[in-house]
Each structure stands twice: as C-alpha cells, then as structure tokens.
C-alpha cells in the first residue's frame, strides 16, 4: 500500500493528500473495507445521496496491481440514490492499478463542481479540468476524447444517464466495464463530474517478487486445471451461465413469473450462441488468467458483452430472446452509462404492470423486442415513460400502485437467480447490505456449481454458511480480487499472497473477522439510515407463489426461519440490530 | 432430469459400487455414458454413492459447451476417450491397489486366472500433472485404443466399456488382480504356477 489518500473537494476545487492510518489498514485491509469505514466516519446521517455532501470513495487493496491473479480490481463506496443504503461495488480493468501506481490507495471525492469538470490524476498530481464540452457525450465518446486530450490513460466516466441523475446510472470503466449497481453514476453526475482519469503512475510494487511468483505459479496451475476457470468462463464468458441456471429452473422469465425455459429459445441466447455468432475476441483484466470478457460484433455494431446478468435482464426477464437486439441493448446501456440489471428488471416490471392493467402502454409487452433499445435511450434522457423507468423498479411500481411487481430488495433489483431455487442465495438476496446482490455471499457457487463443494440447494441449514461467505466476500472485496478466482482458489491462497505482499502475518480467521467487521459496519450504516428487519425480505412472489414448472417447481422461500437463524449466528437481535457483544468483539461502535 | 429412469439406475448402481468398495472417496471419481452425440456425466462435487437425477449432466461430445460449468473436472478426459476409442461408457476411479502398484511398477502383470482372462497386463502411464485433466486427456485415450483400462500413476484408473456395467467389471477386476499381485509380492515366495510365463502372455 502507499498509505496515502487523495482528497478532492469539488466545491472548493481543492485537492490534498492525507496519510491513510495504519490501524485502518489493519482492521479493514483496503478496497471495500477502507471505503466503508471512511464513508461511515465522514458522511452525516440522512444526507441525500445526490447532495454535494455525499462521498465517492474509490479504493485499491493491498493486492491491487501486484502479480497475484485477478488483482486489477478496485472498489467504490458511496451512498446509493437508488436504495439509500450503503453501496459498494468493484470493477476490474486497469484503472485501479493506475491509481496505485500514481501513489494513492484512496481517492476521496466530496462536494459539487460549479462548472462541469473532470479530474486528472497525473502521477502524484491531481487537477480539475473543464468538461463543459464533454457533457452529453456517451462513455465511448468520452473515452476517445480523453485519449485525445490526456494521452495514454485510464478513464472512469459517466454517460448521459449519470448526467441526468438517473437512479440506475452506472460509472463506466474505460467505457466497457461498470460500477453498475445502485445508481453510482448519478452520484458522480450530481457532482458535475464527467470523468476521472489516471495516468503516468510510476510506482512499482515488487516486494518478495520471486516468492510471490512461486505461489503464483501454483495458483495459476490450479486456475488452469479447474474447468470453470480454464474452460467455461474463458470460452463462453459469464453468459455460460444462461443454460446452467436454466437447467435448475432458476432463470427468471417475464419478471420472475416463470423461471424455466423448456424449449429451444434457451439455445438462442446461450453463451454458446453468443460465442458462435458474435464473439470477436476474449478479453481479460489486469493479471487475469481467466479472461472472461467478450468483445463482440453483431455485424451492425461492435462492443463489450453482454455479460450473463445483462443478457438475462435485457432478455428473458423481459420475455425477449433475440440475441442481436439484446446485445445492442447492452451496448446502449454501456454507452449511455446505465446498469443493465436494473434497466432490464425495471423494464420487465413495467411490462408486468402493463400486463396487470396498471400501466397503460400497449407496446410495453413481454417479448416486444422492438421497444427495448428505445426504452434504454428514454431512460438515459428521462423522456416520456423513461422518466419513471429511470427511478428503478420499486419507485416505478409504487407510482403505478403495483409495488408487489417490483422484483427488488431494499430498492435494488434482484439479479438472475430466482430465489425459489436456492435457499442460501435467497437469504443472501434478503440480507445483503446493498440490496438484492448476488455477489455479497455468492452461494450459487456451492448450491448449483459445486464450488468449492456441492451442497443441497433446498436445504434450510444455510444461515451459518451464508454469514461466513458474506464475510469472506467482504474480505476479498478489500484485497481486492475477483470473485471468479475464488472458484479455483480458497482464501488460503489469498492469505499466502497477503503475507508475501505486506510482510504481515495473516490467517484465514483473521481475514474472515475483517470481513465480518466490514459487513457489520455496513449494517450499522443502514440501521442509522432507517433500515431494519422489515427490509430484510423478498418480494411476496418468492414467499407465496410457487413456480409452476421446471426443476424448482412448487418451491417458495421460507424466509422467516432462515432469517431467524441468520440473525442468531450474526449475533444480531430479533430486529436485526448487532448486539453490544458482537460490536465489542469487532471493535465497532454504533453510528450516530 | 436429462436421462430415463433405467439409465439413471445404472448410474446409481455403478456409483454406489465404486463408493461402497472404497474405490473412491465420498466425492472423487466420475462416470459417464455416450448418448446420441452427447455425453452424460456425473456432476462435479456430487457424491458417487448417492447420485440424484440432478447430478447427471448432459454435455456435447464434440465440442465444449456450458455443461463444463457443472460436469466433472475430468470431463475432457472422458470426451477424448469417446472421440478416440470405441468406448460407450467410461469410469474413472481411484482403485487403491492399482495406485499402490503404479508407484513401483510400469505395468500390473496379472497373475490370477480372471485377470489373465480379462487383461493379462494392465498398463501404467505417467503424466506430468496427474490431478488435472489436460495431460490425462492427451495420454489416456492412446492406451485405451488397445486396452480396456489404464492406470495413471499416483492417481487412479480410467476404464472403458460397452456400458457402465461393462466398464465397472474392468475396474473391479483390475483392482482384484492388483490386490492379488500386491499380497503375493508381500509373501515373497516363488509362485507354484505363474500364468504370466505361459504361452501367448508375452504376445499381449
């Protein structure tokens, strides 16, 4: 680590550096952990996420930018305008490595620019430059302009959606990867900040390089022999999961009214089909041997993706099975800077509202692929129905008196796994601190994919395991490494790497405890903002309406039982509030 | 469920025998069948002795597909065996006596009548990374073109058959022959009759 925070106050157009305290690194590692701690310490209760006082905190971890597999990742923490919860997100690519090489571990942004601008971090120096001419450009155009103006650089930017404060706007990384969830693009837009550029970093991190390379070789060999990381993801990208999740009757269709596609439509949108029809080349992030990224070309357009979740959300969730249109819709989201999961799920919600007679729009029908790309454009510019879609599924559904048709938790739309087919994942959706997130304790790995070991997906004894996975995941997000490397490598590898990189003694237990501290602190943030047990739930559909067909037929989620066990194991009281006992153990205090 | 009940029952029987006879640990080993341009194979992480219909994964025989996300880690070895030999079914097991003898011998020479009838000699091969599928996928099919079963040194056996039950016979028979040879070697006494020295054996 560099032990340095770069603080930028946009209102004052000032930047300064501050030392990153050793005790923070010791207790929170980096990445998500450091970001969460800084947000909790510096953001007052009840601040509107689009207020200048909200913080945008980008943080790298101790492994970022090393030779450790998948160590190109970095984290973002802020308060979400979609959910009003704490929001953490992480992204790959090369930007985080660039920030670290410039000498910083954290970029801490507050305030609002008087004139629209962008930030350039040029080695150890930071500067705010005028972006009036960039405002309105797509993320692709912004990237090109930045390259023209700044030379060889890495760029985070928002598109028109972020500028227009769309609550499902993303921050795009090099115009292709995304800090997708929770409307973080709107936070950046609210600050008048179009882009953040890093360039010319020269710092190198090579302590124990020879020993790290030896462990790295063992780790890479393991990644290369494990079929998920050596064949499934590299060959087909994350879209490989389309047929896999469908095989378990868990691929939501028509806003989760179904979760199984029995006919050939599934082949039309599969990872195999994407590879065969549109794949131009595979791409990887910094230090990644897996290379799950897809550069695709439909013959009419060229771009990145779609990833599994995007393909599903813009596809089957809306009843759409035209791969070309789905791919074009995905490109549109990337260019306009919109979260694909939230976009697809919000459109699907609108389609069900129309189906139920609550929204009058005859074109808004499941399966109507013709309207998809236009709807995405309308979301970005808040035009016509897009004004309501831009608010996300929950606000949309509430407006049209059909809140039960919003497939969300705490306001965040549920990703591509129907909760009725895997009880642990269902509990994860219900309890995740940032709303329905599949990644905060990815039990799909064990419940469906058999990694690291297969467990019964319908078993209700999942609470302990989920809490452990959520804690581990928080630690991984603080290192920061990719979730996919976890398919092949356990935390024991990360402990070895961490020891070699930092020289500090770490154990798996210590990492898990750090993860638990981060997770619990996020919970305290949400409690301070008014969240409680009532928010740790799922849409009624998953609790009361059994699926009618497929391998998860007749299943619902008995959430109360799962939740009671979960609170108990976390040492939270019956309302989901962490007890004094656990706070003391984790060296935490309640937030005021 | 991707297979009919009768076929699933065959998977169950074979899986149970392999586990009950301790040819595998609770989770190791994998079994597959060829089926209409596809391969039906045990799910990764599923327990061979307690297979459920959801534990049988269908994947393409001729090319990689999304089945790789769920199917056994050694799927590629099975695929190459089907593509390069006459196999209709394949079993991979960790037969203890076969593995023990593979550590000290370059082939398992059968000295019992049943073994001589079925195999005469069981080849042993060595690959650089015996636990991963890549090296085994390259080397194992070459041997199974000529033999029904092969031992990968330090790891276990791959056997082919016309059906899973047929392949099972090769796996269990090889283990029995290996066990007899192992105990006979332990005794350290000369054999009263050595079938491996009799006519035709050396031509095999």
Proportion in helices of chain A: 40-55%
Structural class of chain A: alpha+beta
Q: Note poorly predicted spans of chain B.
A: none
How is the largest sheet of chain B built, in terms of strand order?
A: 3-2-1-4-8-7-6-5
- Characterize the overall form of chain A: globular
Largest sheet of chain B: 8 strands, mixed
Distance between the termini of chain B: 43 Å
Outline of chain B, from the CA principal axes?
globular
Strand content of chain B: 15-25%
Order of helices and strands of chain B: HEEEHEHEHEHEEH
Description:
Chain A is an alpha+beta fold and 592 residues long. Chain A contains 25 helices and 17 strands. Chain A has a 6-stranded mixed beta sheet with strand order 2-1-6-3-4-5. In chain A, strands 8-7-12-9-10-11 form a 6-stranded mixed beta sheet. In chain A, strands 13-14-15 form a 3-stranded antiparallel beta sheet. The longest helix of chain A is centred in the last third of the chain and has 21 residues, at 508-528. Chain A is globular, with a radius of gyration of 22 Å. By secondary structure, chain B is α+β, with helices and mostly antiparallel strands. Helices cover 37% and strands 19% of the residues of chain B. The longest helix of chain B is centred in the last third of the chain and has 24 residues, at 164-187. Chain B is globular and about 55 Å long. In chain B, 46% of the residues are buried. The A-B interface holds A 221, 224-228, 231-232, 235-236, 240-244, 247-248, 270-272, 448-451, 453-454, 551 and B 27, 43-46, 54, 64-71, 73, 75-76, 129, 131-134.
